[in-house]
Structures are given as C-alpha cells and as structure tokens.
Amino acid sequence: MLTFKNYNIADWFSFYRIFSAPFLIILAGIGERELFTWFLLLSYCTDVIDGQLARKLKITSPRGSQLDSIGDQLTLLAGFIGLILFEYDFIKEHYIWILIPFILYFVQMLIAFKKYGKATAFHTYLAKFSAVIQAVFILWLLFFGPIYWLFYFMIFIGTLETIEEILLIYLYPEWVAGVKGYIWALRDKRRLKKESITKASGQ
Questions:
Q1: Model-level pTM?
Q2: pLDDT digit string, tens, across residues 15-60
Q3: For residues 81 and 63, is the Cβ–Cβ distance under 8 A?
Q4: I want to staple 180 with a disulfide (CB 3.0 to 4.6 A). Which of 104, 176, 184, 186 is the partner?
Q5: Beta carbons of 172 and 116 less than 8 angstroms apart
Q6: What pLDDT is stored for residue 3 in this prediction?
Q7: Number of domains the chain contains
Q8: E strands of 76-153, at which residues?
Q9: What is the CATH number of the domain that holds 194?
C-alpha cells in the first residue's frame, strides 16, 4: 500500500498539475481569464521543474513518468477548455486544423489502452519540444493574442509527435517509460531483449 512517504518531490510537482487542472477549469468557467492564464503558466513551469528534479536527484521511475504524463494531459485539457471559453472565435475559425492532432491523439490513446491498459509515458524529445511549443502558443494567445505561424508550427509538430508515439507503441510489446524517440527505440536494449526472448520462446 502506497503512503505519502512513497512519493518523491518530483512526483508532488506532477500531483500539483493533476490537482490544479479542475481549479483551472473552474477559473475558466467563471471567466477569470487573467488568473486562469497565470495559474496555467505556473502549471507549465512545474512540468519543467519535476523532470529536471527527477533527473538531477536521480529519482526517475516508471510511476513518476506516468504521473508526469497524466499531469501533462490534464493541463493540456484545461488549457484547451480555456481557449474555447476565452478565444472561441479563434478556435471556431481554425477548428479543422486543431482536429488533426486531436483525432490522432485519441487514436494513439485508444491503441495504447488496448495494448498496455494505460497511457504511454515515452517522453520523447519530440513530445517535449511539442509541449513547449504548445505552452508558448497557448500562453501567448491568452496574454497577447495569436501568432499564426506559431499556431501552424504547433499543429505540425504535434501531429508529427503523435505519429511517432503510435509507431513506438507498435515497436514495444510491453509498456516502457523514457524513450527518446523512434531512432533511439530501434537500438533500445529493453526492446531488443524482449524481442530475442519472444523469438527464443517461439522456436
């Protein structure tokens, strides 16, 4: 049975994002745009902090990776709800473009849950880059207004990142955390070892 002492400091930063997501949605719902934006910025900052802490203190773990992913997903959901409520005209004008990565994302989630029974936590370089671009665009839009080239760049990177995640799901027969990207996955000893065991057992 897990208790509070089983969680490290990096986990608690992830918990902050998880528990703050409903609060962000409430702020958006009551029209507190400025407060919503500042607290969303704080959530994005904790995403940077928890990963840095985990690596620096050498406390990375599959559980921590999964908590981080859940926090990221809930923060993205809260941010998107905020955009719908505060920037409805922009969303309405560009909804076709926005649907492309979102549909791919839900496809990726369905594949992951069917295969692993839970969401992925690969945390690839491309996923981290995509998250940064998303955060910059969303915050800039809420604070100052849209940057259109950044919007299309965000859609492109988000689509590319989700396609890579789907490819990684097919590469790994079992759930793993911390995969830098597709090229790295091809040489990942965890995957190669599992493949060799599977081949040996099938002979």
A1: 0.87
A2: 899 999 999 999 999 999 999 999 999 999 988 887 777 677 676 7
A3: no
A4: 184
A5: no
A6: 46
A7: 1
A8: none
A9: 1.20.120
d(CA 171, CA 182): 9
**Cα–Cα–Cα angle for 19, 22, 28, rounded to 5 degrees:** 140
Is the model's pLDDT at 195 over the cut of 70? no
- What's the pLDDT at 198? 61
Quick check: 52 and 43 in contact, CB under 8 A? Answer: no
Task: Tell me if 177 sits within 8 A of 124, measured CB to CB.
Answer: no
Instruction: For tokens 């027969």, name the residue.
Output: 173
Tally of CB atoms within 10 A around 131: 20
* Domain containing residue 117: 4-202
- Better pLDDT: 53 or 101: 101
Q: How far apart are CA 171 and CA 16, in angstroms?
A: 32
Nearest Cα neighbor of 141 from 74, 99, 90, 98 is 90
Q: How far apart are CA 21 and CA 73, in angstroms?
A: 10
Q: Is 32 left (phi over 0), alpha (psi -120 to 50) or beta?
A: beta
Of the chain, the end-to-end C-alpha distance in Å amounts to 40
